[in-house]
Amino acid sequence: MVRMEAITRHYRVGGQTIAALDGVGFEVPKGQFTAIVGPSGSGKSTLLNMLGCLDRPDSGRYLLDDVDVSTFDDERASDFRNRRIGFVFQSFHLLPRLSVLENVLLPRRFLRGDGGSLEERAHTLLERMGLGQRLEHRPGQLSGGQMQRVAIARALLMQPALLLADEPTGNLDSKSAADVLALIDEVHADGQTVVLVTHDADVAARAQRQITLRDGRIEHDSAA
Ligand code: ADP
Ligand code: ADP
């Protein structure tokens, strides 16, 4: 369902060309939970941006659900991203003036038609995250772990083809981190395809599969 074929992405810095990604290819079957690991500078963020349709390769192809998204212009890419990809970040990225429920419903603005049933889905997701009593709270009234659970509920609202998580436990204490990882496990157990980027080997070990990047190439793939 995720298919990356010989992806390259170069940056020109001064007179130099850096290959942030250099012939990266892999497939993630539907429902798999994959971790991307590797040292700083190995290309993880570049790959995550590519997977999230925030960036285009210089060469190679990226297919998501059989759609070749690597040829999309910016407008089509953002439309596709808003509907089909859920993001979870290290720093939560919740809007402080909106309630928990309003934050989870934010992706509704990308729907052209009726988003009525999304309200019910938002309630269900927040119940499941143990936040059913917090719907009207502001993010600032929650713990870090609770904020990240709100962010996960928001990322799942549109039933994305792909859930992308970028160091989702990086700002959390170990107890909250364990809760958030358990929640990601549950979401995966429900059939959600998940790709998580981390430099933390313990976090990566929670995934079914680890892809290790080094210098823009796949150094090791536990599924290979
Ligand atoms: P990681 O997320 O694993 O730390 P990155 O994808 O951020 O790795 O970076 C991979 C390589 O590409 C590094 O050498 C980095 O310096 C370079 N790079 C990333 N983004 C840019 C950019 N916007 N401009 C120039 N070089 C970049
Ligand atoms: P964090 O500290 O939580 O990782 P950052 O502010 O560093 O958050 O951003 C993380 C990533 O989010 C960056 O790689 C950036 O390219 C990406 N990003 C920026 N804008 C958007 C957006 N509108 N939707 C999804 N991802 C985005």
From TrEMBL:
The keyword Nucleotide-binding applies. Gene3D superfamilies: P-loop containing nucleotide triphosphate hydrolases (3.40.50.300). InterPro entries: AAA+_ATPase, ABC_transporter-like_ATP-bd, ABC_transporter-like_CS, ABC_transpr_LolD-like, MacB-like_ATP-bd, P-loop_NTPase. CDD domains: ABC_MJ0796_LolCDE_FtsE. GO terms for molecular function: ATP binding. Coiled coil: none annotated. The keyword GTP-binding does not apply. Keywords: ATP-binding, Nucleotide-binding, Transport. Residues 2-224 form the ABC transporter domain. Pfam families: ABC_tran (PF00005). SMART domains: AAA. PANTHER family: ABC TRANSPORTER ABCH.1 (PTHR24220:SF86), IMPORT ATP-BINDING PROTEIN (PTHR24220). This is ABC transporter ATP-binding protein. It comes from Dyella lutea.
